[in-house]
Amino acid sequence: MEDRVRKAAELFEKEGYFIVYSRKLRDKVAVVKDLSVRKKLPRWMAAYTPEEIRLLKSAGLTRGEARKIHEAKKIFGGTIVEVRDGLEDGNDRPDQTRGGPEAP
Questions:
Q1: Which of 77, 31, 26 minimizes the C-alpha distance to 51?
Q2: What is the value of pTM for the model shown?
């Protein structure tokens, strides 16, 4: 185990990323220094920065919730900047759900 961790740390420093299998996501993921390294990876592979991993772990997501985010990240890419509750009921979009101002 220590040998794998050491090799991952070396790869992270040298190449800017390493690939690991996530049991929670049931998929391989790339841990990247920053998203500029993304171009070195297969298109289908989701890439996560250490900050994104911290955000996701601190959110206490269920396996199902984490997998939904992971699948979206595989398809759309992007960066996770915040994890919050209540998105599924539309409460964060009053203009679409509660008769707020209409878009021009």
A1: 31
A2: 0.75
* pLDDT in the model for residue 32: 96
Lowest mean pLDDT, pick from 17-26, 50-59, 93-102: 93-102
Task: Give the model confidence (pLDDT) of 41-58 as tens digits.
Answer: 998 899 999 999 999 999
CB contact burial 11-40 (16+ within 10 A = b; e otherwise): ebeeebbbeeebeebeeebbbbeeeebbee
3-class SS letters over the chain: CHHHHHHHHHHHHHHCEEEEEECCCCEEEEEECCHHHHHHCCCCCCEECHHHHHHHHHCCCCHHHHHHHHHHHHHHCCCCCCCCCCHHHCCCCHHHHCCCCCCC
Q: How far apart are CA 6 and CA 59, in angstroms?
A: 28
* Token output for 76: 């759309």
